[in-house]
Amino acid sequence: MTVSVFIDGAVGTTGLEIRDRLVGRADLTLITLDEARRKDSAARRDALNDADIAILCLPDDAAVEAVALIDNPHTRVIDASSAHRVADGWTYGFPELGHDVAGALRVSNPGCYPTGFLALVAPLVRAGLIPAAWPLTVNAVSGYSGGGKALIERVERDATLGFRDYGFSLAHKHVPEMQRHAGLAHPPVFAPMVARAFRGMIVEVPLPLGAMPGKPSPQAILGAIEVAFAGCAVVSVHRDRPDELLIAVDAAPTDRLDLYVFTNEAGDQARLVATLDNLGKGASGAAVQNLNIMAGADPLTGLVL
Ligand SMILES: NC(=O)C1=CN([C@@H]2O[C@H](COP(=O)(O)OP(=O)(O)OC[C@H]3O[C@@H](n4cnc5c(N)ncnc54)[C@H](OP(=O)(O)O)[C@@H]3O)[C@@H](O)[C@H]2O)C=CC1
Ligand SMILES: CC(=O)N[C@@H](CCC(=O)OP(=O)(O)O)C(=O)O
Fold first, then answer.
1. What is the spatial distance between Cα 278 and Cα 287, in angstroms, rounded to a whole number?
2. What CATH fold (topology level) applies to the domain 112-278?
């Protein structure tokens, strides 16, 4: 018995990368719609209801519509969009942080920036090293594929566009899931940026350790993050401290999530840093990982580590 999978939005940036990882798998049967029918609601309704698991790689409004098209109790959903990440009845799809994806009917894939932020911050809030009411900031740089087809076309059309700083309304769609799933009392101040590189991401959370309640030590911070991800194949916590972290303009895809804790000599300041591929653990890799867990397959099948 194979598991039938329909990717709604299969020719978008995220959908294509998921499809590439699933093609050829003997344990899955892919349901596909041709170009003429891929946006046809009736055809999508049939495909969604025929699937054991539907993966939504759509803009938020189309993802909400897709869920409404499902009228049977068995089709399970992995939604890559940000439509359901703090919605009731949905499981947040970050298994390394203890979210129970295996038996879930509705799974919301974490956002790319929140993946790095939550990996760094959630274990520290849980360990009591960051108070829930502490005012956090998060600075991040993404590859331009993070903006989907529209941003890819814009960057590749405009050779003068070297770097993009944005999110100045302080209402980025990823802030609610960062706050909720880290267990914070206040939304973090989020400064997202885009580099002229196709894929890749660096997410950074500065911590003034010496000014925080209890003055947590760098060792305690690193130790809590290590404990949280012990035995996780996708997440690596590094003890080495490279002088720099780079995003290559033509980096190869990866589903890894790498975490670092940089501190000064006095141990009273830290920069927590996560590096990932926005299209890997930030989107497609996480979706495939969740699919594997939901389908009862080896969680690492098809992942690039
Ligand atoms: N890119 C990334 O790094 C990440 C993306 N995501 C999320 O994943 C989702 C997809 O993003 P991404 O792949 O980047 O976006 P893209 O714009 O690259 O792809 C979206 C796809 O959805 C299709 N589509 C739009 N409306 C409909 C509809 N009503 N019915 C069927 N198909 C439709 C589009 O069609 P057409 O080709 O005709 O435009 C396109 O192929 C988004 O919600 C995004 O926020 C999440 C994490 C990271
Ligand atoms: C570089 C860039 O534009 N990134 C997107 C977020 C990536 C994405 O599509 O996010 P979801 O995880 O929410 O689906 C943005 O800032 O809107």
1. 12
2. Dihydrodipicolinate Reductase; domain 2 (3.30.360)
